[in-house]
Amino acid sequence: MGEIEFNDWEKLDFRIGEIKSAEDHPTADKLYVLNVDLGNKEVTLVAGIRTHYKKDDLIGKKIVVFTNLKPAVLRGVKSEGMLLAAEKDGKVILLTVDKDIDNGAKIR
Question: Chain-centre distance of CA 11, in angstroms?
Fold first, then answer.
């Protein structure tokens, strides 16, 4: 991957969000529809983590959300951002925080 300038990094807005609900996507068996509290607003994220997490295990989890990504419609559902996760050899792990912090806290 190529290098980017610091000014490019500053354009990205990553925030802490808390998953408030997780539902099966109505037409995709690998996707969840998540309602995430970003402190000043709630957003909907469509995430391909259904084969890696149970819905009940997601509720209350604090995650890192890419908030200023252009919204996209994924299989008919509007997604207003993207959660961050690590993947290796088919294993997916959500990026979370190790201490409690307010929803909406900016990643720097």
Answer: 18
